[in-house]
Amino acid sequence: MEWEVVIGLEIHAQLATKSKIFSGSSTQYGAEANTQANIYDLGLPGVLPVFNEEALRMAVKFGLAIDAEIGMKSVFDRKNYFYPDSPKGYQITQLHEPIVGMGHIDIDMGEGKTRRINVTRAHLEEDAGKSVHEGFDGQSGIDLNRCGTPLIEIVSEPELRSSKEASAYFRKMQSIVTYLGICDGNLSQGSMRCDCNVSLRPKGQEEFGTRTEIKNVNSFKNVERAIEVEIERQMDILEDGGSITQETRLFDADKNETRSMRSKEVANDYRYFPDPDLLPVIIDEEYVEAIRATLPELPEQKKARFEAEHGLSAYNAGVLAASREMADYFEVAAEIAGDYKITANWVMGDLSAALNKNEISITDIPVSAEQLGAILKNVKGSDISNDGAKEVFNAIWSGKGSDVDQLIDQLGLKQVSDTSAIEEVVAQVLADNPKLVEGYLNTPEDKRAKAIGPFIGATRKAAKGVNPQVVMEVLKQKLNELG
Amino acid sequence: MHNKTLAQISQDLQAGEYSSVEVTKHFLDRINTLDGQYNSFITVTEEQALTQAKAADELRAAGNANEWTGVPMAHKDIFCTEGVRTSCASKMLDKFIAPYDSTVADNFNQVGAVSLGKTNMDEFAMGSSSESSFYGAVKNPWNEEHVPGGSSGGSAAAVAARLAPGITATDTGGSIRQPASFCGVTGIKPTYGRVSRFGMISYASSLDQGGPIARTAEDAAMMLNVMAGFDKKDSTSIERDVPDYRADLNKSVKGMTIGLPKEYFSDDLDPAMAQTIQAAIKEYEKMGANLKEISLPNTNLCVPAYYVIAPSECSANLSRMDGVRFGHRCEDPKDIEDLFKRSRSEGFGDEVQRRIMVGSYALSAGFYDAYYKKAQQVRRLIKNDFVAAFNDVDVIMSPVAPSPAFKFGEKSKDPVSMYLEDIYTLSTNLAGLPGMSIPAGMINDLPVGLQLIGNYFDESRLLNCAHQFQNATDWHTKTPTGLK
Lengths: 483, 484
Known about the structure:
The structure holds 2 protein chains of 2 kinds.
Chain A: E1 3-14, H1 53-65, E2 73-74, E3 77-80, E4 90-93, E5 103-110, E6 113-126, E7 130-132, E8 141-143, E9 150-156, H2 163-180, E10 192-202, E11 212-217, H3 220-239, E12 248-252, E13 257-260, E14 273-274, E15 281-282, H4 285-292, H5 299-310, H6 314-321, H7 324-337, H8 340-358, H9 369-380, H10 386-397, H11 404-410, H12 419-432, H13 434-442, H14 448-451, H15 453-462, H16 468-482
Chain B: H1 6-15, H2 20-38, E1 41-44, H3 46-61, E2 72-76, H4 103-111, E3 114-119, H5 153-160, E4 166-171, H6 177-183, E5 186-189, E6 209-214, H7 217-227, E7 257-261, H8 271-286, E8 290-294, H9 302-317, H10 336-347, H11 350-363, H12 369-389, E9 395-399, H13 415-419, H14 426-431, E10 435-443, E11 446-454, H15 459-472
Parallel strand pairs in B: 2-3, 7-8, 7-9
Antiparallel strand pairs in B: 1-3, 4-6, 5-6, 5-10, 9-11, 10-11
Helix pairs in contact in B: 2-3, 5-6, 7-15, 9-11, 9-12
C-alpha cells in the first residue's frame, strides 16, 4: 500500500525576556542550580503570579510575523499534573483563548521553491524546572532556574508531509524568532525544542491515522532522523496489519530509534481551568499596531529585497536571508566591497565552509564583516586575486593580522595590473617558448581558448602577482598579432 | 485594659496612659493564662511582640508615633509572616516557617503594630466550625460546648475572649462573618480585590478576601485602613483609592434604603432568628432608614455553585503541597509517586481531602462543562441579582447564619449540613461584594449577628451603618459569661 505521512510540530521557544513570565527572577542560562528561583518559582504557599508584559509583547510580535490572528483577549489556564520540577502542581498555560491564533509561514523546499504551512496557534506558558538524576545517591535533584521561563508553544497544522519538510519548518521558525529577537534560537541549550506528531494514512484517505508524539527533539538533523525512523516503525506495523498505539515516544539518537516513554500511559486528565490568580489579558488595536511598527524586516522580505535590489538568485537570496546574523554580515560586507554577487559567493562559499569546518556560528567568526568587505573590495578592484583574498581571509582568521591592506602588502599579494609591464613579460614568454607559440597558431580558432592556458601559467611564473585577467587580454592580443 | 477597644488603646498609647510594652504584656499574659481554654492561638510570638512593642515605645519617645504605633493585634494563621510558622492549621504546614511577609502582615508592620501571634482556624480555611484544625478545635468563649464558627474561629474567639483587640481574618464563603456572629464580635469582608491576597495562603482564589475581626465597627474601620489597598504583587487586587474608613462612621442613616431579600426571610428561617433580625432592623427604622423587600431569585443556587467553584480552585491551589520543597513529607518514600500520595494523604485532614477530590472531579474532562463552567454561569446570575437590587437599595440586611453557634460534633459528621451554614454568606463571595456581621441580639445566651451587604467598594457605608447601630445598641459590648 502507498502511505501518506502526516506530521505536525509543536515547537517550544523560550522568549528572550530578562525576567520570568510570572516572577522577577532572571532567565539567564547556565547559572548555579536554584540561584534563579525566588519564592514564586519555588511555589511557596501564598505567592501569586504577576504577568511579565514583555512576554506578551514578544508573543504578539511573533503573531504579527506569521500573519496570524492576534487574541485581543487571551486567558491563562492551569494545567494540573504532579511532577517534582513543576512546583505549583500545575503549569500556567493558555488553552482555549491563546494570544496567537491561526497564521502561516512559507518553508523553503529547495531551489528557491516554497510551501505554505498553516500554524494553528501559539500560546504563552511557563517552562518547567529540571530534574537532575545523577549525583544524588539514588535520589533526584531539582533545579528550578529554568522554571517559569516564558515560552511560546507554536503548534502547526498537520500539513507537513516528510521529515525534510518538518526540519525545513523548524528551521524557518528558528529563523523567524531570531529575526524578531524574541528567542535566541539556541537548540543545544534548549531555547527551542520540538515535539513531532507523526502518523500514516493510506494515500487518498482523508481520515488521519493514529499518531505518536516524539518528545523534545533538539536538533534539525534529529527531527529528520526521528521522524524517518518513526515512519519506518509505523509502516512496518501497519504493513503487518497491526495498529499504532497513541503514545509519547522518545528519540534515542545513539541507537537511532524511538521508544515508548511511558509504558503505563494512562490518558492524563489535566483538569484545565482558567487561572483565578490572573486576569484575562485584554489588548487593543493600538497596542497591536504599536508592536507592528517595531517589526524588523523578516526573512521573506529580506530574500525578496536581495533578489530585487542586489540581483541575487532566489537560491542565494534564500540561503543568505535565512539567518539574520548571516544576512546582516553579508550586507555590511557587500556594501564595503561594492559588489553583492562577489560577496554572496564568498559568504556562501569559502566563509560558510570555514564556519562549518571550525564548527562555529557567524556570530563568533574571527573575520569581521568590515574586514571581509575590505578584502573583497580589493578583489573587485582587481588589486588581488581570489586566491589572494583567501590568503588574507585565512591570515585574519588565524590571528596573523587585522589590517587588510597591511596583510596584502606583507603577503605580497598585490597584483600587477599595469599593461605595459605585463606586455614586456608576455613578449619575453613568447620569445622563450617558440614551440608553444607554433602549436597555438596551428590550433583551430574555436579551440584556442584552451590552448592559451600554458602561456598564462608561464607568464604568472615569470612575474608573480600579475593580474590574470590582464595577462589573458595581453596574451590574446599578442598571439593574434602573430597569426 | 483588655476590655478597651483598638481605638481606645490607640488613644491611651498616644496619651501616654501606658506603654506598648505594658499593653502587649497584658495581652500576652491573658493569652498564656486563658487560651488553654479556648485554643484560639496556634502560635504566640511573645518575644517578637515584646521587641516590636519596645521599638514602638522608643519611636513614640522620639516623637515619631502614629495611631497604630505599638497597638497589639494578631493574624489568622493563613497570612504568611516572615520567620514565623504559618501553618494554615494543617499538619502539612506544621513546620513551615514563612520566609516572607504577606502584604497584610507587612502593612501592619509598616504602621508599627505589634503582632501577638497567629490564630487558629479550620484547616486551610475549609470549614464553618474551626473543628478541622490540626491543632485541635477552637472553643466559643460564650459557651465552651459550642463552636466559634469558622473558618476564622480563632480570630473571632480570641477577640471575644479579649485576648487581642483586633485580629486579621479571611472570608471565602462566610469565614469572617459567621464566626463573628457566633462569637458576638464585628467583622467585615471587603469587596473582592480590596485587600491584597499576596501571602495569604489560597483556598479559593476567586473568592478569598482578607478582612478584620474586632469588637466595634470603628475598630474594624481602623484595621481596614491598614489592610486595604492596591498591591502590584496581586494581579486581582484593584487599583482604586482607599478612603479613610472612619470618615463616614458618624453619618446619619436617615433616608437610607435597606433591602430585605425575601429569599433570606423565608418560612424556613428559624422563628427565634427571624425575630432577632427583625428587631435589629427595627432599630434602623427608628433611625430613619426605609425598608424595602427585594428579591434575589438565584439565592438557592449559591450553595451548589460555591461548592463546585471553591473545591475546584482549591484542588489546584493545594497541589503545591507535595512534600517536595516544604511541608510534610512521608517517611521513606519508595518513589516519587509514593512521596506525593503519602505526603498528601498524611498531611491533609479529611475535609481538605474531601474538597480536593470534589474539585478534581468537577474539573475532570467530560464533567467540566456540567459543573465548573455551569457554576461560573450561575455565578454571573447571582451577581446580576445583586447589581439589580442595588439599583433600588443602599444596603442589604439579613441573618448571617441560620442559627447561633452549634455544638461540637453537631455538624462535623454531616458535611452537607455544615455546608448549609454558609447559605446567607456565600452569595457575597460569589458576587465579590462586601459583607459585614455585627452583634445584633442573643438566642439561648449565644450571640447572633446581623449581616450587612453593600455595593462594590461601599465598605464605608457598611461601617457607617454598623457604627450607627452600635451607637444605638449595646450588643457589641456584651462580654462572654465568666470573662471579666
